Amino acid sequence: MGRTLYLGSLKSDVYFCIYEKDYEQYVKLGTPLEEADIINRFEIRLRNERAYYAVRDLLTYYDAEQTAFSIINQYVRFVDEEPDKRKNDWKLNDRWAWFIGDNRQSLKLTTKPEPYTLDRTLRWVQRQVAPTLKMLKKIDKGNGTDYMETIEQQAKLTEKHEMIIKQQTTPAKDLVES
Question: Which keywords label this protein (predicted)?
Fold first, then answer.
């Protein structure tokens, strides 16, 4: 049914979908391609908290263009590679700059990050990391490799990690000063 390009993960609370609307209408309704009102469609797809903040911005300013382009400007950026510079310093692509428009603000669709909790980390590991770890263990077992062992040996704990380990393993009575 035409080509579709997704920017971002379909499991994410924010992603973009660009597709050939004219071809979709041709397949669904038999509308000749040259008669289609819309050729391509760019959709912003939001869920949960991200959708809430987008609606809040829309209801505050009553400006759909401002809200839409502010979201796009926050989450999508096309640049031209400059080999001698870091990626963050690469110049915005001229065509993308034209599409976004001059002096566009960006709209962050989140609140302040939640404070760290072990429970939050465990949920993240369970959702994002565990399937890959399980896959690697099965590959190691099936092939006699040691990817998991190598990864664990090469892992470096930061000061933050060490602090969390201490917090989680020190008995409460030892943390209280008398």
Answer: Initiation factor, Protein biosynthesis
Q: What's the length of the chain?
A: 178
Look up residue 66 and give its two tokens.
Answer: 């401002």
Dist. CA 119–CA 129, nearest whole Å: 15
Cα(9)–Cα(19) distance, rounded to whole angstroms?
16
CB-CB neighbours of 88 under 10 Å:
7
Q: Is the pTM of this model over 0.90?
A: no
DSSP 49-76: HHHHHHHHHHHHH--HHHHHHHHHHHH-
User: Distance (Å, rounded) from C-alpha 88 to C-alpha 82?
Assistant: 10
Q: Are 34 and 23 in contact (CB under 8 A)?
A: no
- Ranges of residues in the chain with a pLDDT under 50 are none
